[in-house]
Amino acid sequence: MGQKDGEIRTDTGADTKWLDFAVELQFIAQAGLTYSKDHFDLERFERIREIAAEMLSLKSGFSMEKVRDLFCNETGFQTPKMDTRAAIFKEGKILLVKEKNGTWSLPGGWVDVNQSVKSNTIKEVKEEAGLDVEVVKLIAVQDRNLHNQPVYAYGICKIFMLCEAVGGAFRENIETVESGYFGLDELPGLAEEKNNREQVEMCFRALADEAWEVPVD
After folding, report:
1. How far is the C-alpha of 144 from the C-alpha of 109, rounded, in Å?
2. 46 and 115 belong to one structural domain
3. What is the separation of C-alpha 154 from the centre of its chain, rounded to a whole number of angstroms?
């Protein structure tokens, strides 16, 4: 499924050092809770995690309950989440899907635990755009927080894939209400937190360049 509203988002702009501290504290605390055996150490790591949540609550405006649910609900060693985005072209234009909030995005979303990057890309296109696609090549692997605003309070690896439609047709669904193909000079309002103009332009360049070298953050 695609990313949903309610994710912890933070202030835009340069003053985000506090977020780096909160994320690092959360990472240290989760690792400590995973690997420590000493009762007193576990209490200390739990308190560190609580402090990280308090920082996020104060800066984001979310309640502590909401922050705990979104930011402190995982166990095990913390790793970035994965998000796949499909670039599909027809007659030199790129496919975008319109979300219920009125913004447009490349079809895609979180990688499910039982999916590979490739199969998840195919699944998300079917769910959001109604199309059956084949994955042609990898376009880019990006650290989301280096490219998209607002910055999120956890790491996300964004994977862009060039795909070719082989069948299917759009049907309105629980996530998207419309689809369309757009040229670079006619892009609608984008869901900037998921894909911005720079990323869409990158997809156009990858399509045109047979010797495309995949950028990796």
Report:
1. 13
2. no
3. 10
* Nearest residue to 98 (alpha-carbon basis) of 207, 10, 172, 14: 172
Quote the domain boundaries for residue 57.
17-71
φ and ψ at 93, to 5 degrees? Answer: -120, 155
Separation of alpha carbons 180 and 170, rounded Å = 9
Question: CB-hemisphere CA count at 13 Å for 105?
Answer: 26
pTM of the complete model beyond 0.85: no
Instruction: Answer whether 25's CB lies under 8 Å from 52's CB.
Output: yes
Question: Distance (Å, rounded) from C-alpha 43 to C-alpha 92?
Answer: 58
How far apart CA 157 and CA 201 sit, in angstroms, is 19
Write the pLDDT tens digit of every residue in 75-130.
776 778 899 999 999 999 999 999 999 999 999 999 998 999 999 999 999 999 99
Pair (43, 110) in one structural domain: no
Distance of CA 209 to the CA centre of its chain: 25
Please give the Cα distance from 161 to 143 (Å, whole number). 15
Q: Which two tokens stand for residue 179?
A: 């689809």
